[in-house]
Task: structure prediction
Amino acid sequence: MNWLLFTPEIYYLLVSLLFLGASMGGRATPGTDYIAALSAAAVGMAVTAAAVKLEGSLFAGSYRIDLLSQVFKVILSSALFLVLCICAQLNGIRERHRRDFYCLLFLCTVAMMMLVSSVHLISIYLSLELSSYSLYVLVALRKNANLGLEAGIKYFIIGIFASAMMFFGMGMVYASTGAGYLEELTEVLPGFVHDPLLMLGLLLTLSGFFFKLAVFPFHFWAPDVYQGSMNQVAAYIATASKVAAIGILLRVIAVLGEGNAYLIQVLAVLSIVSMTLGNLAAIVEHDVKRLLAYSTIAHAGYVLIGVLSASAGGYSGTVFYAMALLLMKFTVFLVVVQVASAGGNLRIEQLAGLHRRSPLLAMALLVAAFSLAGIPPTVGFTGKFLVFTAAMQKGYFTLVLIGMINVVISLYYYLMMVRAAYLLKPDEALPDLHLSLPLRTLTGALVALMLVAGSFPYPFIQAANAAVRALM
Amino acid sequence: MASCWIENSTLLTAIVGTWAPFVTFVLIMLFTRHRPKTSAGLSLASATVSLASALVLLGGHWNLQRPLEYTGRWLVSGDIYIPFGYLLDPVSLLMLTVVAIIGFLVQFYSLGYMAGDPGFSRYFALMSLFLWSMMCLTISPTLFQLYIFWELVGLSSYFLIGFWYEKFSAGQAGKKAFVMTRLGDVAMFLGVLLILLHLGNLNILEIDSPKIVGLMPPEMLTLAALLIFGGIIGKSAQFPLLTWLPDAMQGPSPVSALLHSSTMVAAGVYLFERLFPFFLFSSTATTVGLAIGTISMLLASTMAMVSRDIKQIWAYSTISQLGFMLMGLDAGGLFAGAFHLTTHAAFKALLFLCAGVFIHQYGTNDIYDLAAKGTRRMRVPMLCTIIGAGALAGLPPLSGFFSKEVILAKLAGLPNPIWLVAALLGVFLTAYYAFRPIFIMLFPPSLPAANASNAAPEGTRHRLLYRIMVGPLVILAGATVALGFLQTPLRNFLAGQYTGLTTAGGAHLGWLPYVTSLLATGGVALTWWEFGRPGARQTGFVDGIPVIARFFAERWYLDRLYRAILDHAVDRGISAVLAQNDTRVIDGSIDGISRGTVLAGRLAALINAGMIQYRLLMIFAATVLLSLYFFF
Result:
């Protein structure tokens, strides 16, 4: 066994264990801890990037390292780094829980990295659970126990429900085919297309991923959890967790979905319901994080369009979309964290006058919102273009039509945020927001990246194409 | 492209001309936001560069034989290749020049109009952003690039309408404009995708070539054409998406002059010109287009007949004239549409800029108020307004007369006479509503005591600002008069486009010009009888029938209808149910939590609130339904 292949995961596991050890003893030193976590995440990015060309398999073939998994690991490690960038003031949790927070965050990242590399039903299940459990605790860590605990419990209950369904489904799959490796499943699948046991098993298996991605009907946790967890954790759930779910979903659908009409139709239905429901519910929302939760549900619907196209273009569009989601969602959360500086929840009205308090943040919010709404030349537009084109090539005209109508609906509530930031006047004069220089640089870089990747997406698309080639 | 662009002077001129405003936008946003004078200077300088380059391009390619195209790679995904670059041909060169000239004049005018505004720099930055996107839209060689800039001009319009941040209704209007045009863009995007799938690329020259008929089945072609026409409806404010334009008048007057009359809303018509042969391949699409254009033209005319807001009157007339252009294009007259677009750009910008001078001076939009405050004493703007309205009404020898004439000739060539009749009715109505504000303002029942300060504003600074504003008016008025006589050169210039497709100039009916001018004069005479003659009651014949007047003033209740649909279907229907559900469930559970102290108690309260089971049940039911689906 070549342990070198496992380097990024080992690195993140070690960091996590270090923080675990530190959390058991010693006086809390928030400043030092933060610097340590941030630099550990930065080094982690370098380690993951260095490992991008590795290929091979581990653990009796249940764990595959290929370009797809490595690209997703790079995205995940950057997501962790970005989220840590906005953790300088962790107002949302008690000081003595800081180290636990870092430990869980790193642990969750390991689990997600393992998830995108898993190619056996059991390894998929284990890494999915590991990442979910870290998140349950992270959500419940919030200082305001009422909010955090309630959200954590809701998240936990719906999570274990989905997980039970998933495990049941895996059992059915194994019972009908005797295959546990995804590759084996590909081989035997053509003979079982009309076998109810296997098909229902596959459907239930997917429910675990749907839960992670917040696809209807497994989306119920999202608004409550986003609202209840502290802003940084919500940012992590909205970015890293979604990216990982997209990664594993791609792997599984690439193996099972092609030529499987039933699964494709189910995905199409779920996609339509998710986008429509998410967008309509978001219109009446006034809590920014709940609004973002519904927008996540809608975006899960767009992602499914790319996934169910089951073509090279669709998959690479989905990978591109995952990168885009990370950029856009993170930027919005950066604004949320900075504006809700006391660590509380943010209502849309509280964004009022942002363009006077901090023009940079207001502009970041504007670009991110327009990107989420899919307006060119932002990265969100290019992502939607790729995904919708792939679906059109497969002839899913109605699906694309519904998707486009949803894009217009979504514009409405994104504009609500923009309007608040630029047009509304705050009831009382609020002090200016001062960002530290690194944070200003980061914000500027994110804005530039959203525009540049939207205008000149070619290198990113090439990377996505290369990653997807591992699937075909 | 990279190797030759520096040596090729045409391409270099095009790049410099189109990107100068963008550079300005970035510079202002990054560096000179707090130095209004520098910002304005930068912006005006870049507008001058754009204007010069557009004129050089137009002059240098007056005898253009075949379209010039320069492209580079933008993205390749799977078997789809999308380039970006420049396409220079008569249609795009003409539009580019129109945009550059009006853009320059309006920016110059804004120096006076916006002077002292707190957002001066921001305003010029946004104007530059618009100019850049509009010019890039004009010279797009692919539909994809065109679509991107199409959205960007929409975006600039959104920012510029809501330009006065403090004005809440302006923000609302901007949003309405943006969302409504986006609705049309959905259709357009789908149409673009359809073409992409059949053709494999989005090259405008290839879409316009006859080979598309072989690549796309006829019904697909019709569908694609109709979908793209949806985008035109949204952008050019045609029926049924026309109500956003009058509301967009909340923005500053120069913005209305540049975006919402002469260039941005005309982008829809421009797109039609761009894809002219493509639309002609589908007779269904042209018939639908003809109908939509006619309906919009007549509908907007009736609305303009009763409005009291000067900018709204001109906004309705914009809708109506754009509908008129679409009629001409759908009847197969490329030159007809393009010529009227050009003349309309000149006289409509003129009308809005004049209205801006009045509003700036007297602070009201209401024509009766303006009249009472003595607009007739502002000689130059008043005279310019009359020239503009004359062109709008189609009175000879102003440019509007000639361009309307070309369209009418095309319509007369159609087998079905109904289009011509509708258009002639439109001519009459246009003359009526165009001169209604003129006579009201010229002959107010009573005038305030003649006071010199009213006519010429006081103070050297004030006078300077006034002169800055009047300068562009005079130029535009000159253009309005002169353009009509440029008909033949322009026709020859455009004849190079789509050779073989432009059918001979429709029916040459000797009586048509007389009938047109008679109708226009008749319209003006009726207005004069009702509003202008000494002792006139200054109420229109429509006002005599309150039901109809109200119907017109309420915009045929279109807005109410949309609002009702939105409220019932979305706000009160689905989302309200969802929201109610959420509040009940969440409030319930939070109340429950605060009651208990022990974790168990909290859990029990949670479960007693009934939400978790309810949600799990939903998950379960949905999954069961999906599973059942397998058996069907």
In short: The first strand of chain A starts at residue 56 and ends at 58.
